[in-house]
Specification:
mainly alpha, 18 helices, 449 residues
Length: 449
């Protein structure tokens, strides 16, 4: 088998379970919302939605922390230094536990005040506060589960996280309606059901995951060595945060930009808002695929850097670009073949459907340059360079996307807001590609751990 073909096979074996894992992570939240809306009512759905800004912020930090740890684990694994893997995992879990315990204590006590600060409507304040309290009190379980499943991928194991997430999702989806109604001896806990279901499913899955990793003598098995390193190592923590914090900040900035764009869209009326929601749902699938490819590039790239095989790093980048054209581009093409049918899953009103189709035609193709840009940033992140790619993305958002959306919305109307997506994604591709080839790739690349 040729080196190129072997790399494609390795990439695909890692990417397929990664895409499925990411899909499962969103499935539980989606179906839980359906349960709440159908079994309790729209107020319950609104109460849970009110907690979303808090959840997004915490989720961004966990993703950032796990990103930094996974890159270092990948580099240590590529270098064959398995003892260092335990140090990285122990440090990451220690800081994750300390932070989440602090969140649980403070958030559990002041959950009502927190929801009031978020301007939660008075008629759902009690329900939102109850849901927030349980979510925050059980945060340590969620943090550990997300960190472990992410860090396992650092050694090239995409199947174990997929199995863990599948089990956790299945348990959660079974328990949620049972806890809403109170069946088979379980108490009826109403709106807090998804939070309790997630806590129980995370606990059971973590126990089984630990047993599985120990039996397999896995590199991340929670054995005596790992428990010895379950403490803060300043040098390792600095490297984890050096990669992780820019990733988290980038997520937050993108979310803030989306809120600004939503504000512009809302100014064109409720039909525009409904179309915005449907188009974003559809584009979410294409961007979801692109981001999964970027994560694969980052982890496999980290292993190549750890092993000192920079020729393989270049091959991984080329493979990631090809996968984006084939998978992301293929998905975009399929949607363009039947846009009304795809959008019709989310909206039924004819006028809104026509508007959404027009907007989708403008913006959907830009998921491809977005994906290509994230391949380059993912490769640099795999080598431990995250700050400059993040600053380039923030520059594109703040200096290009938002001004373009504001100016075009006033000159050409609603379609101008959507034109900002292709503009910013193409700008990101130019910036990330230019920095990768003209600056970063000409420097000496060394592993961090």
């Amino acid at each position: 088998m040729s080196a190129a073909k072997s790399l494609w096979t390795t990439f695909l074996r890692f990417l397929a379970p990664l895409i499925l894992s990411n899909a499962l992570q969103s499935l539980f939240g989606t179906v839980s919302n359906v349960y709440l809306g159908q079994m309790i009512g729209v107020d319950a759905l609104a109460a849970v939605s009110a907690f979303f800004p808090v959840m997004f912020f915490l989720f961004a930090f966990v993703i950032g922390l796990s990103t930094g740890a996974t890159v270092l684990i990948g580099q240590a694994f590529g270098a064959g230094e398995h003892d260092r893997i335990k140090i990285i995992v122990g440090t990451t879990l220690a800081v994750g536990l300390l932070l989440s315990i602090a969140i649980a204590l403070v958030g559990g006590i002041f959950s009502r005040e927190l929801m009031m600060a978020l301007a939660t409507p008075a008629d759902i304040l009690d329900q939102a506060s109850a849901y927030a309290r349980i979510m925050l009190l059980t945060m340590p379980l969620g943090f550990v589960f997300l960190l472990m499943t992410a860090m396992i991928r650092g050694v090239g194991d995409g199947l174990t996280p997929l199995l863990a997430l599948a089990l956790s999702t299945a348990i959660g989806l079974i328990l949620t309606p049972m806890l809403i109604r109170g069946t088979i001896g379980l108490p009826a806990v109403g709106i807090t059901s998804p939070a309790w279901a997630a806590a129980i499913s995370n606990t059971l899955t973590l126990i089984l995951l630990a047993a599985y990793l120990l039996r397999r003598k896995h590199a991340l098995a929670p054995d005596a060595t790992l428990l010895r390193h379950l403490r803060l190592n300043g040098a390792v923590l600095g490297k984890v945060l050096g990669i992780g914090l820019p990733s988290a900040i980038g997520m937050v900035v993108m979310a803030i930009a989306e809120l600004v764009l939503l504000g512009l869209v809302n100014g064109f009326g409720s039909n525009a808002t409904a179309a915005y929601g449907a188009v974003n749902q559809v584009m979410g699938y294409t961007q979801f695929t692109a981001m999964s490819i970027s994560i694969a590039v980052s982890i496999l790239g980290a292993q190549a850097v750890g092993g000192g095989d920079l020729a393989r790093l270049d091959g991984i980048v080329r493979t990631g670009l090809a996968f984006n054209i084939v998978l992301t581009g293929g998905l975009v093409a399929l949607i363009y073949l039947a846009p009304r049918a795809v959008l019709g899953i989310f909206i039924t009103d004819g006028a809104v459907l026509d508007l959404a189709k027009e907007l989708l035609n403008i913006a959907l193709w830009s998921s491809v340059p977005f994906g290509l840009a994230t391949v380059f940033s993912g490769a640099m992140r795999g080598a431990g360079v995250a700050l400059t790619p993040m600053l380039l993305s923030i520059f594109a958002i703040a200096a290009i996307e938002l001004p373009a959306a504001i100016i075009l919305s006033h000159t050409v109307g609603l379609t101008g807001v959507w034109a900002a997506y292709p503009i910013v994604f193409c700008t990101m591709l130019i910036l990330q590609t230019g920095y990768y080839h003209l600056v970063w790739r000409k420097r000496a690349i060394r592993r961090l751990i």
